[in-house]
Design brief:
Blueprint (H helix, E strand, L loop, with lengths): L3 H16 L3 H37 L3 E7 L2 E7 L37 H13 L4 H17 L22
Antiparallel strand pairs: 1-2
Length: 171
């Protein structure tokens, strides 16, 4: 995507606005547009990246990435999740669930409200596994449900075995 036409359009709009202020304002606008070009490009890139993030949230498990080629952004669209061999996941974190094919049934959409701190932690965990937050949450929910369906250990032994038993998640 070529950003130069957008930067030029903004420069022209600033010149038109400066015309109303006279020759001094026009000269000032011309002097300001050159140093502001990099700030304008950066602001456009931020807007494009934010849009790609929003699209990725709706496209999950696919994604849209913005990459720079020289001074211009390039969009990379992944319509499905990366193959498992590229991004290995620990067996406990990868239950038998295929988000792309809906192997265990059709998909449904829900609204989920999370505290900001928890959302940030989920985003970090998903990024570490190179997944969207949606895919990571689907895997976590499936793993939690699979874990609750697993048989429970027998009642706690008495006597000398107390304190010798460990339960929980390990990474």
């Amino acid at each position: 995507m070529e950003l130069t036409p957008y930067v030029e359009k903004l420069r022209a709009e600033l010149a038109v606005a400066a015309e109303t202020g006279g020759a001094e304002a026009r000269a000032l606008a011309e002097r300001l547009t050159v140093p502001l070009e990099s700030a304008i490009r950066l602001t456009l890139l931020e807007a494009i990246s934010a849009a790609a993030d929003e699209i990725t949230r709706d496209l999950a498990p696919g994604s849209v990435e913005v990459r720079l080629r020289g001074l211009n952004p390039v969009f990379v669209v992944n319509t499905r999740q990366s193959p498992p061999e590229e991004h290995p996941v620990a067996p406990a974190a990868a239950p038998a669930w295929d988000e792309t094919t809906g192997e265990k049934g059709a998909t449904s959409r829900i609204n989920l409200r999370l505290p900001d701190e928890l959302k940030a932690r989920i985003d970090e965990a998903a990024a570490r596994e190179r997944l969207s937050a949606n895919s990571w949450l689907v895997r976590a929910a499936a793993a939690a449900l699979d874990a609750t369906a697993a048989p429970r250990p027998a009642a706690r032994p008495s006597g000398t075995d107390l304190g010798q038993r460990y339960t929980g998640w390990a990474r």
